[in-house]
């Protein structure tokens, strides 16, 4: 429990980064993104310390695994933000990371125990691949929501903004802190709306990277499961749900590559796939904990 207290450090720092947008008047984005990067560095230190604490063995606390998942998601968000210069990704995705951090702190004290007589690195590879795939699909979900909302706004001849307000230099001395908060958000150039083509392309890249990671993770997971239950033929509910999730993204990838599926329909399928991921996690960790060795 003492180690879990460190989880609150990145939570508080992430909240502080948003507070900067409320307080700071000049160049709020620079301060915001600096705090995001700094907090991610703190996350990285905690992840390394947590893994070292358990000597990179196959006894992994469930809270540390969720914390590790939040770290992977934050890493992917930062990489996409840097690669595509899409500043709004960070501001939309970070609350999901905060939610994951809170879940990791309040998660029950259960361990994924070393009940499989296999190489520990095989289990680690399974976990990393699954979490990476899920994180990429989470980002695709966020991008899909932004796409759908922006498309709807464009049809109404409006632009999507986090907070509707005037331009960066609008307002006078009596504008107040709330309006300063709105003005600071506009520093992200959010008032200009989001490029639908760029959103769709980023969504596609998440799919291209996430699907192979998920596929490899599932294959390793089936192997580990067969080692646990001494039979490849035994089918577990978690495997069925995982394969359904895989099938949704396989169809989506096929439609995008073979038939050029783009835009709203692709976004809707990404959202459906993400919902299946949530169901998979629920079945995996709570309804059928024995299938992952949780005690």
Give a description of the structure.
The protein has 295 residues and is an all-alpha fold. Helix content is 72%, strand content 1%. The chain has helices at 8-23, 28-53, 62-84, 88-106, 120-155, 176-186, 196-229, 237-258, 263-287; strands at 60-61, 111-112. It has a two-stranded antiparallel sheet with strand order 1-2. The chain is flat. The protein starts with 7 loop residues before the first helix and ends in an 8-residue tail after the last helix. Mean pLDDT is 77; it is low at 163-179 and 287-291.
Could you give a quick summary of the protein structure above?
This protein is an all-alpha fold. Helix content is 72%, strand content 1%. 33% of the residues are buried.
Tell me the major beta sheet. 2 strands, antiparallel
Sheet/helix structural class: mainly alpha
Rg value: 21 Å
Strand percent estimate:
under 5%
Sheet with most strands: strand arrangement: 1-2
Poorly predicted runs of 5 or more residues: 163-179, 287-291
Overall pLDDT score: 77
Count of distinct strands: 2
* Large-scale geometry: flat
């Amino acid at each position: 429990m003492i180690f879990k207290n460190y989880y609150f450090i990145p939570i508080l720092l992430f909240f502080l980064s948003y507070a900067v947008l409320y307080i700071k008047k000049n160049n709020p984005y620079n301060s915001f993104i600096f705090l995001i990067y700094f907090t991610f560095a703190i996350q990285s230190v905690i992840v390394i310390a947590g893994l070292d604490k358990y000597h990179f063995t196959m006894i992994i606390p469930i809270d540390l695994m969720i914390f590790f998942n939040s770290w992977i998601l934050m890493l992917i968000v930062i990489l996409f933000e840097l690669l595509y210069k899409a500043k709004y990704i960070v501001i939309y995705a970070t609350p999901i990371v905060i939610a994951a951090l809170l879940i990791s702190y309040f998660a029950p004290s259960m361990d994924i125990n070393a009940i499989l007589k296999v190489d520990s690195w095989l289990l680690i590879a399974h976990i990393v691949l699954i979490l990476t795939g899920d994180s990429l699909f989470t980002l695709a979900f966020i991008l899909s929501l932004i796409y759908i909302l922006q498309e709807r706004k464009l049809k109404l001849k409006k632009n999507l903004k986090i907070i509707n307000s005037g331009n960066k230099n609008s307002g006078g001395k009596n504008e107040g802190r709330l309006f300063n908060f709105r003005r600071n958000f506009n520093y992200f150039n959010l008032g200009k709306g989001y490029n639908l083509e760029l959103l769709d392309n980023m969504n596609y890249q998440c799919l291209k990277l996430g699907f192979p990671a998920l596929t490899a993770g599932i294959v390793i997971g089936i192997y580990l499961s067969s080692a646990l239950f001494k039979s490849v033929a035994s089918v577990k509910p978690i495997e069925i749900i995982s394969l359904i999730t895989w099938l949704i993204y396989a169809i989506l990838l096929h439609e995008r590559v073979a038939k050029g599926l783009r835009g709203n329909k692709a976004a809707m399928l990404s959202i459906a796939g993400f919902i299946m991921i949530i169901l998979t996690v629920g079945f995996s960790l709570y309804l059928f904990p024995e299938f992952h060795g949780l005690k």
